[in-house]
Amino acid sequence: MVDLETINAYMARVTETETIVHKPCSNKLKVGVDLGTAYIVIVVLDEDNNPVACEKQFAQVVKDGVLVDYGGACRILRELKKKLEDRLGVELTEAAIAMPAGTESSTKTHKYCVEGAGFDVINVLDEPTAANAIYGITDGVVVDIGGGTTGLAIFKDGKVVEVDDEPTGGTHLSLVLAGSYGISFEDAEKIKTDYTRHREILPIVKPVIEKMATIVKKYTSRYNIDTIYLCGGTCCLTGMEKVFEDTVGIKTIKPADPFLVTPTGIAMNCLVEDDQ
Questions:
Q1: Which of 48, 128, 221, 247 has the most CB atoms around its CB within 10 Å?
Q2: 57-104 tens-digit pLDDT
Q3: Taking the C-alpha atoms of 52, 58, 61 and 62 in order, what is their torsion angle to the nearest 10 degrees?
Q4: Residue 264 shares a structural domain with residue 217
Q5: How far apart (Å, rounded) are the C-alpha atoms in residues 56 and 52?
Q6: Which residue, 211, 202, 215, is CA-closest to 141?
Q7: Where are the alpha helices (DSSP H) in 117-260?
Q8: For residue range 138-176, what is the model confidence (pLDDT) as tens digits?
Q9: CA-to-CA separations, 199 to 191, 206, 207, in angstroms, rounded
Q10: In terms of domains, do 174 and 247 share one?
């Protein structure tokens, strides 16, 4: 059984590193780069997976897992990398990355972009599997809902038995809000991330969340799954897990702050060499 209290405490420490550098246990650092639909995130851990530093920036350079603004993504990555290096006083040379499941054809472009920012990419994995580095489940389904896609990885006996990804995510919630309120997409994004308005907007976006849950239900119905584990920035919406649980009919849990789960899991999969 997942210890959600421990996960919440760990993720709170990761969030702290956006403003506070935590001293690493050694000079061997692990870097995770997440090129998301709404945000580009870099998380740095030490070799024992203790959080060290984190930087993120809003960006619309990826659509449905496909990099659509290569130059913009490279520029932002270089800026975030320099901020982290200035904060840490060391050069960051190696990184792991992750892709939405089913977008393997775009992996080379993502890899070239991260390399263009000055990293050697030493591992590539799918996003839900990366997130499971945080959860550590052996049986269940990890669902990563980002800005553009809903991805999942089904685990049985500690092994991934199926992964998939479909183009429905937080962007779709914002589009619905923009249409409902007659406002711009940017203003809808602000409302969506305002926790004080979550109770107000949940009924408006609920049909989209139910669609996401139906996607997951299509896959979980093939297996004996008893728990869904949510992560990704879109899952920050208060009450989202209840909509999933009601729609799929399976217990659904999420950490207090699901946004940085996947990039942190990516960093955990950046294997350091003994002579680094």
A1: 128
A2: 988 888 767 788 989 999 999 999 999 999 999 999 999 999 887 666
A3: 70
A4: no
A5: 14
A6: 215
A7: 127-135, 170-181, 185-192, 198-220, 240-248
A8: 999 999 998 888 989 999 998 999 888 888 899 999 999
A9: 11, 11, 15
A10: yes
Q: Kindly state whether residue 274 falls inside one of the protein's structural domains.
A: no
* 114 lies in the same domain as 146: no
**By the 8 A CB rule, do 146 and 35 touch?**
no
Q: Give the pair of three-digit tokens for residue 47.
A: 């070799």
C-alpha 210/C-alpha 219 separation (Å) is 15
Residue 96, strand partner residues: 32, 123
Domain assignment present for 275: no
- Claim to verify: residue 139 and residue 104 sit in the same structural domain: no
Q: What SS3 state is found at 40?
A: strand
CATH classification of the domain holding 208: 3.30.420.40
Q: Spell out the SS3 assignment of 50-106.
A: CEEEEEEEECCCEECCEECCHHHHHHHHHHHHHHHHHHHCCCCCEEEEEECCCCHHH
Domain range for 108: 4-126+260-268
φ, ψ of residue 13 in degrees (nearest 5): -65, -40
Q: For the chain, what is the domain count?
A: 2
Q: Is 70 a member of any domain?
A: yes
Residue 148 shares a structural domain with residue 225? yes
